[in-house]
Amino acid sequence: MTFWLLLTINSITFGGLLFLLAAGFSLIFGLMRIPNLTHGSLFMLGAYFGATFVGGLLGTVFNFWLAALMAAVLVAAFGALIERLLLRRLPGQPLAQVLVTLGISFIVADFCLMVWGGDPIAVATPESLIGIVRYGTLAFPLYRIAVIGIAAVVAAGLWLLLDRTRLGAMIRAGVDDPDMARVVGIRVSQLFTVVFSLGAGIAAFAGVIGGPILSVYPGLDQYMLPLALVVVILGGSGSLVGSIVGSLVIGFIYNFGQALLPELAYFVLFLPMLLVLLLRPQGLFGRFVP
Amino acid sequence: MSRKVTRRKFMAGTAAGVALTTLKFPAPAIAQGAPFKLGLLTVKTGPLAQGGIQMEQGVLTWLKEHDNEMAGRKVEFFSADTGGKPAGTKTKAQELIERDKVDVILGPLAAFELLAITDYIREHKTPTLSLAGADDLTQRSPNPYFLRPSATSSQAMQPMGHYAATEMGLKKAITIDYDFAFGYEQQGGFQAAFEKDGGCVANKLWAPLGTPDYTPYLAQMADCDVLCQGFAGSGPLAFMKQYANYGLKHQVVTGETGGDDALLHAFGDEAVGMISCCPYTLDLKTDGNQHFVKAIMKDFNVVPGFYAAGLYVNCDVVEGGLKGAGGSTEDKEKFMAALKAVKLPDSPRGPISFDHLGNIVGNFYVRRCEKMANAPYGLKLWNKTIKTYENVSQFWTWPEKEFLSHPVYSRNYPPLKKC
């Protein structure tokens, strides 16, 4: 009983973390039509920044939430630079753009290794969320449950942005039909910078939020990127609902798949992606076929 | 005057050139003075980088201390990054052996990397000293050019199993490790020794290499006295943190990678009470070790662990072998024999020698991780040695013949019994 309950709760909490990771990826994929292969590295870079801020930089120890926001802003700025200086020089060449993002991911990974070294770094759980929630024989870390809340807040924020602001309307128009959007006068190229930057920032934020659970170490990017990819392919790109549903589904498959079918752990994770691509390529809630 | 190269001139020139190359120039008798070429296969990128970077630091510290000389010969050092992938290892090994013409290879780091190049080094007769576990390379398929001054994958876990059953009185264990050769061999060793002394392993869990969230496995850890984990690299840190976060309180035991002293600075309270059995321990108070630790702290400001110490010892062994072979590596068999005959009474890991299969026989230290207010090197945790097993071979207390008659430790061997 405890086993099933524990895994169910973790499926939702891990799903929450995956949502934070995948939301940015989904936005970028939706608007710019390219899978951003730097996404895992941006997650990791954000986590490293967060770890440094939380651990103390130049004598100042930053509050966890402040550290997360600072990391997000830093990486968002970096994302904007990547988009303006590199991706914008390759308009209409999605393959070249994807390869550039792949190359940047290697550079970022090496940079992190150079600056922070090869040893793993632990990120301290924020004071207010240290603790274990108990229910009978079940024990669950408080922080992981809090991640559900954080993911919900970010999801609500993104929904407000996309649904209630002019910027959001422009983004949705760009996702639905970039050419028509341009005809109507929407500066889609500028939107690209905004969205890439936003996606990068959310990824970095996710990295810091994930820090107390996963720690930060070289190679983290390579494990998180495929998960983002699977969530977005399954849920559909450019769709917030798709990201939420995809994250939850993958959260469940990750936990129960590894626990019940350990030999097939990663096969079980990528099988749904394969099925979706074959049977419904736009994903469950996707706006277009990638 | 025509400057054209006529066909006649060309032919004459080529003939002269070819003739020159066939002339035998007197081979200068400078074999002793020729530089000794040392190659290192390590991992400096990706998840195994934590150990790989330390491996290089261990070698560089040794070379610095010895003025870049081994047995009186200048050392040319070639370091290669395999990326932690067997294909990369093969490529880099080829570069080192065929392009750089190294005399000895140190490394590679991982067992699966070593298995990828074992035939290649046997073909090229290049003496190789590695930290990689891969049990069978000094057991059932011994490679005559391979020497292992560190430990087989199971060598540290066998005394750990024995200690857990006899000195700690633990009866029921669950093991968890990565789903690959190093994991299987570690846990196989633990299980064999633990069950030999009256314990029982109830379940063996296997996590994919590098999985970020261990919850699916933590959910299965009910009802046992002891958890044996054998993670490496960044795994021990993430795993112990998640373990503590779920409020699990079983005794944790581990091997040389899980208890690596290099991780002490990264661990938090979750590691307190963890028992590990390692071929190297930072708190060994011998001259040999203190000397090494001072040197590497001075050169790199890192607290050394099993990887750095292992490579430092490797260099000591290579120098010992080179001295024993009279400074020359021309005769590969003689050099290998000299390497195997090396006995170091005061290496950083204590006294060591080799068995006839090229594997180390040495001390293994059981340590408990404790909170220490003023630990050396600015640490807050310390692995305190609580027991030393001496002259531990790869076969633990089993007779060699009996040990080798069983299959190599694998995912399903030893098989699980009902507990």
Output the keywords.
heterodimer, A: 290 residues, mainly alpha, ABC transporter involved in vitamin B12 uptake, BtuC, 11 helices, 3% strand, B: 419 residues, alpha/beta, Rossmann fold, 2 domains, nine-stranded mixed beta sheet, six-stranded mixed beta sheet, globular
If you had to describe this structure to a student in words, what would you say it looks like?
The complex is a heterodimer of chains A (290) and B (419). By secondary structure, chain A is mostly helical. Chain A has 11 helices and 2 strands; from the N terminus they run H-H-H-H-E-E-H-H-H-H-H-H-H. Chain A has helices at 2-32, 39-55, 64-85, 94-116, 142-164, 166-176, 178-183, 188-214, 220-235, 240-260, 265-279; strands at residues 132-135, 138-141. A two-stranded antiparallel sheet of chain A has the order 1-2. In chain A, helix 1 (2-32) runs antiparallel to helix 10 (240-260) and helix 10 packs antiparallel against helix 11. The longest helix of chain A has 31 residues, at 2-32. Chain A is globular. The model of chain A has no long low-confidence stretch (mean pLDDT 92). Chain B folds into 2 domains: 36-151 and 285-354, Rossmann fold, CATH 3.40.50.2300; 157-278 and 363-405, Rossmann fold (3-Layer(aba) Sandwich). Chain B is built from 12 helices and 15 strands. The chains are: A mainly alpha (290), B alpha/beta (419).
